Amino acid sequence: KELDYSAFCVMDVTQAPYRVVARYKSNRVSAQEYPNLITGVARHYNRAYVLGENNDVGSQVLQILTMDCEYDNVFYTEDNKGITKLTTIAGKTPGVRTTSRVKRQGCNALKTLIESNQMIIQDFDIISELSTFVIKKNKTYAADEGTNDDLVMCLVLFAWLTTQDIFKDLVNLDMRKKLFDKNIVQIEEELPPQPVRITATGGPETYKEDGIIWSIVPNEQESDDGFGGRWSGYDA
Fold first, then answer.
1. DSSP strand pairing (133-135 vs 93-94)
2. H-helix or E-strand containing 197?
3. 63 in Cβ contact with 90 (< 8 Å)
4. Are strands 119-120 and 18-26 parallel, antiparallel or unpaired?
5. What is the distance between the terminal CA atoms of the chain, rounded to a whole angstrom?
6. C-alpha to C-alpha distances, 171 to 45, 49, 141, 174, nearest whole angstrom
7. Sheet with 229-235, side-by-side order of all strands
8. Which residues pair with residue 229 across a beta bridge?
9. Which of helix, strand or coil describes residue 218?
10. Contacts of 140 (CB under 8 A, 6+ apart)
11. How far apart, in whole angstroms, are the C-alpha atoms of residue 216 and residue 193?
């Protein structure tokens, strides 16, 4: 209390791009009070699913949330050979431990979502934290000295969530496939148009390229280039 901040973000995932529709950040709420606050907000927002960080005090918050507050829509995790897998089945470990691997995957996913305009952020405090969320000497992202990143880390966990299979099943949207399809369309639009060969009955063979139609006119003598023809064209 009055030390580290407790923070959460509410995300609208009913359609892409995703939107931050509410957020909370305070260092004056106790670990015993915080779960009741989360429960009230989650129920208000259509009984939203809750993904919490279970490092340190977060584990206590999630235990109260699931046991005392009896909130059901919580993400759980199970580890399988070092790979963290999400589930909604109660009885597993509530929340996710923010390991270096989870954080790295979440940061990369968050970067992709923001740069591709697939996440809309209209909150001054979140944008301020993002502006001081820097890469450290150990190659991990964190708040710059004298600042904090509590709200950004909420988005990092959400971005990590969007890469999980269970998220795609719940929202029926595969963001990675959506981004891939969007990039393919962009690449195809940047490619030069393919030449079109036009053959007309009773006339010379024509060839269209760069908006100009060229007619192939036979020569009586072989041309210097060895193709036996010369090119003439007119604006299409």
1. unpaired
2. strand 196-198
3. no
4. parallel
5. 75
6. 15, 11, 28, 8
7. 196-198, 206-209, 212-218, 229-235
8. 218
9. strand
10. 100, 103, 104, 107
11. 21
Judge if pTM exceeds 0.85.
Answer: no
Write out the DSSP string of 193-217.
Answer: PPPEEE--TTS--EEEETTEEEEEE
Position of tokens 């995703």? 18
Contact 143, 133 (CB under 8 A): yes
Q: How many whole angstroms separate alpha carbon 14 and alpha carbon 9?
A: 15
**Nearest partner of 9 among 150, 167, 163, 174, judged by Cα:** 150
Q: Which pair of structure tokens corresponds to residue 12?
A: 């609208």
CA 147 to chain centroid, in Å, comes to 25
Question: Which residues sit opposite 7 in a β-bridge?
Answer: 25
**What single DSSP character describes residue 27?**
S
Tell me the mean pLDDT per 10 residues along the chain, length 236: 81 92 94 95 95 93 95 90 81 90 93 93 95 88 91 96 89 61 64 57 63 63 46 45
Identify the pLDDT of residue 186: 64
Exposed / middle / buried, residue 13 (Cβ in 10 Å: 0-12, 13-18, 19+): middle
- Omega within 30 of 0 (cis) for the link into 17: yes
- Taken as a whole, the chain contains a residue count of 236
